[in-house]
Design brief:
Layout (H helix, E strand, L loop, with lengths): L5 E5 L4 H13 L4 E8 L10 H7 L4 E6 L1 H15 L2 E2 L2 E2 L1 H20 L3 E3 L8 H12 L4 E3 L1 H4 L5 H10 L18
Parallel strand pairs: 1-2, 1-6, 2-3, 6-7
Antiparallel strand pairs: 4-5
Helix pairs in contact: 1-7, 3-4, 4-5
């Protein structure tokens, strides 16, 4: 862990990624955390206030990347032409992950980062989508997946951690799940 000096985090500003910033700084002492958020067409209000929040919780800077045109032209249109529908719905959130991970890897390389991080839990396919894309675009890059490392076991524990570290949240214990607008 001591050889990690700079980490680029896929950042949404939701509960998971918001607590990951201070967690990375605690568990990778002396590291710089750079956050990267992606606009894949979900609308501007989801990105409002992200920079202030990222900086307030310990990131050195935030990239907000507009990937909408590339996402539409290179992902959505070909997927629709292929008829890729799963159980009656289009694959919006799931197939947005590789383009986000691609840009995450590109920024990490540009920044000279030692690692990238994401907030995907160990329960779903999102971690696979992120990590395979990262390995394609930056094969040598270390991937940090806090959900596989930390002692936090529930959303309530995450909220406890956020409160203890003064991380501002847009949710509470009753509405503790994030919703992707894309």
């Amino acid at each position: 862990m001591s050889d990690i000096k700079k980490i680029v985090l896929a950042y949404s500003g939701g509960l998971d990624t918001s607590v990951i910033i201070p967690w990375l700084k605690e568990n990778y002492p002396g590291c710089e955390v750079i956050a990267m958020a992606a606009n894949v067409g979900q609308g501007g209000d989801e990105l409002d206030g992200l920079e202030e929040k990222a900086l307030k919780t310990g990131a050195s800077k935030l990239y907000i990347e507009d990937l909408t045109d590339e996402f539409v032209n290179d992902y959505i249109v070909p997927t629709m032409k292929a008829g890729a529908i799963y159980e009656g719905y289009l694959l919006g959130t799931s197939f947005a992950r590789p383009i986000i991970a691609k840009r995450l890897a590109q920024i990490a390389l540009k920044e000279g980062a030692d690692a990238v991080a994401h907030g995907c839990t160990g329960k779903g396919n999102d971690q696979v989508r992120f990590e395979l894309a990262i390995k394609h675009f930056a094969p040598h890059m270390k991937v940090i997946a806090p959900w596989r490392e930390w002692s936090i076991k529930s959303r309530d524990e995450e909220i406890d951690y956020a409160e203890a570290h003064h991380v501002p949240l847009k949710i509470n214990r009753e509405t503790n799940y994030s919703k992707d607008k894309n």
